[in-house]
Amino acid sequence: xxxxxxxxxxxTPTHPEVVKAMxxxxxxxxxxxxxxxxxxxxxxxxxxxxxxRIAKCINAxxxxxxxxxxxxxxxxxxxxxxxxxxxxEGNHIITTSIEHHAVMEACKFLEGRGFKITYLPxxxxxxxxxxxxxxxxxxxxxxxxxxxANNEVGTIEPIAEIGKIAQExxxxxxxxxxxxxxQIPVDVNELGVDLLSMTAHKLYGPKGIGAxxxxxxxKLTSFMHxxxxxxxxxxxxxxxxxxxxxxxxxxxxxxxxxxxxxxxTYLRDRLIRGILAKIDHSRLNGHPTRRLPNNVNxxxxxxxxxxxxxxxxxxxxxxxxxxxxxxxxxxxxxxLLAMGIPREQAHSPLRFTLGRxxxxxxxxxxxxxxxxxxxxxxxxxxxxxxxx
Length: 388
Ligand SMILES: *Cc1c(COP(=O)(O)O)cnc(C)c1O
Description:
7-stranded mixed sheet, binds pyridoxal-5'-phosphate, alpha/beta, 12 strands
């Protein structure tokens, strides 16, 4: 059976050209970048060249890129790093109620250590209102963290507007751009951010490598202590193959970007329209237009997301019931709850995320298979009988 992968927001297959670019770092150029003989210098050359190429894709300077083990570490570094560096100036952090667990749990950790956290609400489309942010700011606010696009429902937040507010008041501003880098244009200056998290494995690069963009002059307390790699900001021998693969993936992602965005948007809207037309009592979650070109998130009443997922899997179709990180527990999605979706419905979202190898036939296959699964499940459903 041909398998259809529609969970690109969880991770992406590594692009064959990325794998090819990484191979020399495993054999002839295996050196440690800190070594001063030729093997080391060669490896260091690779790392610095990659840093420059990655920086260029987001309109940053190369010394503003700090490599990390991925998005989670970049988020933790940004949030804890700023909080500890600015502890003397204030203890108030503003974030949103729809962040990825990496940001949310880092904030909760700080909350337990004397920091005050404001979790901004969102509207029913998952959008943050910059006016709410303005109201939440106090003279103790040291950090604002708002994600660029939500990983569950795909809503794109008004980052540039928030960036203006933060800049005017001189408050450090972080965005988790893991879902947008490589997917839509990202320019750190247009967005007005001081810190921006990214990861390679969501843009056809390898797992275990990411980066934090740190605007010149931003003070961060490091939490990886050891050697003076990354200009003393993040100790540990560089993941040279990962870094080289990350740079290649970034460049590939931004080649012919507008064409790919259009292609995905077309497939996305086809899938959305098809589901809403073919399955009654189904609804789209997230913003109808301000959403990632590859994200479809729906609620299908009188079904369970998890059960739909397992039934689709039997047909070779891989999707997600919310996000990869929360799919192993039965808690309703905090994102849907924040959007005002009732608890009993927030249990059953179904998320399709499309990507480079998604073709129109895949979408047609979903539209052929899913309505039958829904009918079958509803026939067995105790909800439907009682609710009519
Ligand atoms: C995947 C993801 C992360 C975590 O990145 P890892 O590299 O997997 O640690 C953080 N934030 C968002 C929005 C994500 O989608």
